[in-house]
Design brief:
40% helix, Mutator_transp_dom, 4-stranded mixed sheet, 4 strands, 23% strand, 3 helices, alpha+beta, Mutator-like transposase domain-containing protein, single chain, 149 residues
Length: 149
């Protein structure tokens, strides 16, 4: 009973810490976007350079989890992050519970090459829905360099 109680307490603390970390990260990224807006001389749409970089949980292409971040070249601050995974937890639950699978799947499909993860993450991060009123004039992607069209 004591072990179970400790596990429950640990899970409760993990959830609280996760929520607090997500709130802080969200606020910091909003402040970075506002800083860009202030530097944009009052324009409706801000044109800025963005560097996109990714990281794996483990070294190599065998890792199941990673993240991609968009970093402002002007300020050096992170504007947004995208978590990438080869596993969708909702799909896993659906197959075990025989529930209708109608959701936006979070699973990254395709080859596990690191460069492809970064390119996919860049497409998701730099969409107008994620960073409204910020036009990314140039993309610089680690290991893949490409210009915005």
């Amino acid at each position: 009973m004591l072990i179970c109680s400790r596990k429950q307490r640990l899970e409760t603390l993990k959830k609280k810490l996760e929520g607090a970390a997500n709130d802080v990260a969200s606020n910091v990224m909003k402040e970075a976007a506002l800083e860009l807006r202030k530097a944009g001389n009052g324009d409706d749409i801000i044109q800025c350079g963005v560097s996109v970089d990714g990281a794996w949980q483990r070294r190599g292409n065998s890792s199941l989890n990673g993240c991609v971040s968009a970093i402002s070249i002007d300020t050096g601050k992170i504007l947004d992050i995208e978590l990438m995974s080869k596993i969708c937890r909702f799909c896993k639950k659906v197959t075990s519970a025989n529930i209708n699978n109608s959701h936006n799947c979070a699973k990254h499909t395709g080859s596990g090459g690191f460069c492809q993860y970064e390119a996919t993450g860049a497409k998701l991060l730099l969409s107008p829905l994620r960073l409204p009123n910020i036009a990314n004039k140039h993309y610089i992607v680690n290991r893949i360099g490409f210009e915005a069209s």
